[in-house]
Write a structure and sequence with these properties.
Largest sheet: 2 strands, antiparallel
Shape: flat
Order of helices and strands: HHEEHHHHEHE
Structural class: mainly alpha
Strand content: 5-15%
Number of strands: 4
Number of helices: 7
Distance between the termini: 100 Å
Radius of gyration: 43 Å
């Protein structure tokens, strides 16, 4: 009796399980697909999909540089701010200025040391130190009659090349500061409105109306400016 009851219970459980499975299998697949799409869209909106962060592509048409970032990039590395602002044509100007200033500073420094040594050799009484002869013209010699003039000449040239060397250094610092200011101002003006609504038009015009006032007075010709904003 108990065995028969147990078999009936097991048979009922099997029938109930089969019925539930059949009902689940009969659900259309598009329901699960729509749910998966909805879940995926919600996860993409949050920026995470199955544990992977989704990075949105940058829209270069509407992208605008940040002023502080452009300034600090240019301070750390000259020209980096211009690259960040996507003004690549300014790089040859900036680096050309640095190269030109470095060359001028090196050349003037070399000439300063050469004239300094020549001036010191000219001022001492040692006949073996005659480095100043490399600056003398062909056939020119320093004698007791003209030594004072040449001493003054070498001193002025020495001071001149030292002044030019220092000026080259300050010009290089100016190029560096100008690159920083340019990167900051360029990033600030990136949001400036330059659409067609802002325009200045200059055109020729006839000044005055002689027919209404005096028909014998000639009309004046000039330029008129129209500002649209």
């Amino acid at each position: 009796m108990l065995r028969k009851l147990r078999n009936n219970i097991l048979l009922a459980c099997c029938l109930w399980t089969a019925t539930a499975t059949a009902q689940i299998d009969s659900i259309p697949d598009r329901i699960f697909e729509s749910e998966e799409v909805f879940a995926a869209d919600s996860l993409i909106g949050e920026g995470v999909l199955k544990g992977v962060r989704v990075k949105k592509k940058r829209d270069w048409a509407s992208w605008r540089p940040e002023t502080k970032r452009a300034m600090w990039l240019s301070i750390v590395l000259p020209g980096a701010g211009q690259i960040y602002n996507r003004k690549y044509w300014k790089l040859p100007i900036i680096y050309g200025g640095f190269v030109g200033c470095a060359y001028a500073m090196r050349w003037n420094n070399q000439m300063y040391h050469d004239y300094s040594q020549a001036y010191m050799d000219l001022m001492d009484d040692d006949p073996k130190t005659e480095s100043y002869n490399q600056f003398m013209h062909l056939g020119a010699k320093i004698t007791d009659a003209n030594i004072t003039r040449y001493q003054e000449l070498f001193r002025k040239r020495k001071d001149r090349y030292r002044r030019w060397r220092d000026l080259s250094f300050f010009v290089m610092v100016g190029v560096y500061a100008l690159s920083v200011v340019d990167a900051y101002v360029d990033a600030s003006l990136s949001e400036f409105d330059i659409s067609d609504d802002l325009s200045l038009e200059v055109s020729p015009a006839v000044m005055g109306n002689p027919a209404a006032t005096n028909p014998y007075k000639p009309a004046g010709i000039g330029l008129q400016c129209s500002l649209t904003f």
